[in-house]
Amino acid sequence: MIFPDNARVCFIGDSITAANKALPVIIDTYRKKFPERKVRFFNCGTSGAQLFYALKYFDEDIASCRPTHAVIAYGMNDAWLWNLPYLPDEEHYNLLTEAYDTYRQRLTTLCGKLESIGVKGITVCTPSPYNEYGEGDAEVWRGGAAALVGYSAFVREFAREKGYSLCDYNSYMTRAMQTQKVYNPEDRIHPSDHGYYLLAKCFLESQGIEACEESPVPEYLKAWCEKTEDLRDIHYVENNIIENRDMTQEEKYAFVRDYLKREGLNPDFISKGNKYFENRSKSSQFLKETEEIYDRDILKLQKGL
Of 196, 216, 236, at which residue does a domain stop? Predict the structure, then answer.
């Protein structure tokens, strides 16, 4: 399904979406292949998130974009793969079973909520593979690759039953891994820059579109990427520092202040945590500015093609 003129497309997912490295390839391809169409893309990815996050922040982070189409890519975090090293312990086996059942329920619920606000086209994506057998220094969670194959089988059947479009990242990236280095060597979850390009290529091919050649992010997209990052960093803190606790906003600020006093924190946590105080109240403004930049730098530029 190629997105039509005036489509508003939300890409919803975890850190692989939030990294915003595949979406620029998709935007650049659409700009060049379909210059007559005004298609607006929104990044609704949150680092470390599971489907729970998309449901909890649905109104603020997704419905606020007024989407007509949505692309959903979850599974890596929802699978709770960190329980695998403890098998065959019964408690951890039960947690893995619970995770799978919860994933199916939440994906169904999220799609229902999207349809309830008028989303016309939903694409569900199989989770990208867990890099269990490739090179890397990170601990290996044995059985992780097989677990996500199981999640992928559910997504394929779910798409068929619901009549949704399907993007099969798992199969595509599994084939690519046989001949190419497509994962970040520091972990077994996140793609390399080339891997992100392949994710974009996979998505576009699922729509019958040939991707543009691999290249750095174009200059005309950089301002949009920077403003998108400001917005995604707010949700990074909500999910990874506040951990989705039910608090008033003032309680959240106090919690983050106390959190940042801890020793040995990841510098990324410190940077994003400090920016949270200034930026949290600006999330609606950031969304508006993101769309204004998109119209200015992308859609207007498109007219010249």
Answer: 216
